[in-house]
Amino acid sequence: MTRFALALPALLATLPVAHAGTLDLRLVDAAGRPVPDAVVTIRPDAGVPRGPIRFPWGTTMTQQDIAFNPRVLIVPVGATVAFPNRDKVRHHVYSFSKPARFEIKLYGRDETRSYTFKTPGAVAIGCNIHDAMNGYIKVVDTPFAAKSDAQGLARIAGASGAATVTIWHPRMKAKDNQVTMRVPLDATGTVSRRVALALR
Fold this sequence. Notes:
With about 200 residues, the protein is mainly β. About 5% of the residues lie in helices and about 45% in strands. The protein contains one helix and 16 strands. It has one helix at about 5-15; strands at about 20-30, 40-45, 60-65, 70, 70-75, 80-85, 90-95, 100-105, 110-115, 120-125, 135-140, 145, 155, 160-170, 180-185, 190-195. The chain starts with a helix and ends with a strand. About 25% of the residues are buried. Residues about 1-20 have low confidence and may be disordered.
């Protein structure tokens, strides 16, 4: 056995160990029904990791069947979102939201346009041709973010310590459609909360 092999266990024992737990939020409305498409973000008091933020779900909002898909998309600050048109009709994408005011004029089927989101916040998306179309892009500056699923569950792993948790939903009865809470996160294990949201 080499000297390196003998020394390796001792070396590993002295290295700092990264600990991080999981936050499980189950979001419901006043009647106890699940709330999908709510965006949950965590900002630990110790700060967020340095470096670029990447999420596994990509940065595309498709227009198909006269609707935006997904209806709610989470992207990091600086992300360029593609808006491919999969409909037989033309679309005209726009937003009047403060974090991103922009307009992508008429374009047709199998064409794609894009826009880069530089400021954190909630951006409401519409189509100037089809008033019933609406979508939302939540631009975030933390890697700890998730969207609630059809069962109202949002799960975020990787954060630990005291933290501020923000919950946003386009129909929430609150300033800027969001509420915040303080949550102590375990270094290991799971912290679970059930949160009732007041919706319009």
